[in-house]
Amino acid sequence: MKLLHTSDWHLGRSFHRVNMLGAQAAFIGHLVATVRERGVDAVVVSGDVYDRAVPPLAAVELFDDALHRLADLGVPTVMISGNHDSARRLGVGAGLIDRAGIHLRTAPAACGTPVLLADAFGDVAFYGLPYLEPALVRDEFGVEKAGHESVLAAAMDRVRADLATRAEGTRSVVLAHAFVTGGEASDSERDITVGGVAAVPAGVFDGVDYIALGHLHGCQTISDRVRYSGSPLPYSFSETDHRKSMWLVDLGADGAVQAERVDCPVPRPLARLRGELDDLLADPELTRHEEAWVEATLTDPVRPADPMARLTERFPHTLSLVFAPERAPDDPDVSYARRLAGRDDQQIAEDFVAHVRGAGPDEREQAVLRDAFDTVRTDDTVREVAR
Fold this sequence. Notes:
The radius of gyration is 23 Å and the shape is globular. Strands 6-5-4-1-15-16 form a six-stranded mixed sheet. A six-stranded mixed sheet has the order 7-8-9-12-14-13, covered by helices on one side. A three-stranded parallel sheet has the order 17-18-19. Strand 15 and strand 16 (257-263) form a beta hairpin. The protein has two domains: 2-263, Metallo-dependent phosphatases (Purple Acid Phosphatase, chain A, domain 2); 270-326, no CATH class. The chain has 387 residues and is α/β, with parallel strands linked by helices. It has eleven helices and 19 strands. Heterodimer of SbcC and SbcD.
């Protein structure tokens, strides 16, 4: 069976104020063309279809168009909700849409109920594990501690239990939206840390032929059977070096996996430039970036006059301007932002406690801070779902 694995469409999202709806529509066209031209048997979409719980109307219309075009091809599509989606909104009408071959899996309780598709070699069971917010699903899965690993492990226990009841030789595919250990993150994914931990080990998914992951925006291989497709479009300058693509997966009669990357159309390349303004404007090596979306970091010791206007004369698609004057590490003017770079909320809070009272928090206090941050993140998720 030939599968096309994609995820993280983020319909409705912009890129530094640039409306990406046209680029997203071009991607949908490319997806449909790939399905038709490469003889794809099933499409899997591993979450974050939309960028937010209540997407703009234009994004909903584009999603509707995508579903109609896939249904017209007669190629089954299985998709799950991600942490940016409203699972209940995305899942509205799922029972009716099933009849058109579009299978929306957004309910945690249905993790162990597969979509069964067949080829010449027998059945393939597709299990959809939507994004599982630990605090919201712990009761459903009966876990004592609300953590990503515990709820995903419980969901996978249901998958393996159902798979054990299937005919011998039934192959299996799991769609999941999670941060798996070994994956490389970018700046454009929403933080899903709970209890100080965001990642889960790949071993959680043992016993399945192919795991189609979503959430991380870089296409990457955790193992031959565990892969991220990444987002089809860039959503931050941290993705400058990404090659945007989908996985075309050939699932053999014995469950063996062969995978090929299918490149996605990107509307404009990204470039991160760094240096003094006059150097950036004069360097002939930068000619190749003149039509790119540009993030420029200026290192001038004194902020130059009209930097954006001057930059856009050469690089008309400059979207982000950062000032980072080069100074000695012990210079008292080194910015607060630079001191915080690469540190998470927990570390910043602990450093603040140490600064105020001269000693960092003990283990009990660290736990209090961690619980507070988890509560804030969970409350944000609940508000998104409720909207």
